[in-house]
Amino acid sequence: MENNVQELIARRAANELKGPSVVNLGIGIPTLVAKYIDDDLIHFHTENGLLGVTDVEEEDPNLVNAGKLPVGERVGASFFSSAESFGMIRGGHVDVAILGALQVDETGRIANWAIPGRSIIGVGGAMDLLVGAKKVIVTTSHLTKDGKSKLMKACTFPITSTRSVDMVITELAVFSVVNEQLILTELMPGVTIEQVRESTEAYFVEGGVGQ
């Protein structure tokens, strides 16, 4: 069931990508998005220094992405240093970043890098992507494993950036973030508006969906 949920979310996120564009995929559900892309003008970027990442079916065990998972390289791919890669991000050359999240607050800010009380390796590129990417899409399950809403009134984990994301996609619904407000724009197949209301702690505008 968990894999089906992740695939559903990744497939829906893939529909948001249109070439020509440079797209960075975060760790977790975002890495699945490449499986659903058939557009040669979409170029996947990883912050450890590769532009032209292919999906996992063409992986090279000698190449990894920022999450240390094997990836492949497409024809015409380019390699560069991590410093140059972050220069691309900070310079506004990444069109779309798709990130996972531990929590999302009702203004669209996210927490995705630290859980209090647990050791961490570091924030990675998430802070830079939130600042530098032109559009940020979050892909996450709607609920935690113990059934609590990940879309909260306020994040209880350390936030990743003061920037709000542009879109949140879960297995229940799709939300746009406009003027720091969550707006429900779409229900996932088979989901009712009542399910979304019951599963969401954060305030959101229903925007006519399910009416």
From TrEMBL:
The record, for InterPro entries, names: 3-oxoacid_CoA-transf_B, CoA_trans_fam_I, NagB/RpiA_transferase-like
Q: Name the protein family.
A: Belongs to the 3-oxoacid CoA-transferase subunit B family.
Which residue windows are transmembrane per the record?
A: none
Pfam (any one): CoA_trans
Gene3D superfamilies from the entry?
Glutaconate Coenzyme A-transferase
Entry keywords, A to Z: Transferase
Q: Which PANTHER family match?
A: KETOACID-COENZYME A TRANSFERASE (PTHR13707), SUCCINYL-COA:3-KETOACID COENZYME A TRANSFERASE SUBUNIT B-RELATED (PTHR13707:SF57)
The keyword Transferase appears for this protein: yes
**Is Transferase one of the keywords UniProt gives this record?**
yes
Q: What is this protein called?
A: 3-oxoacid CoA-transferase subunit B
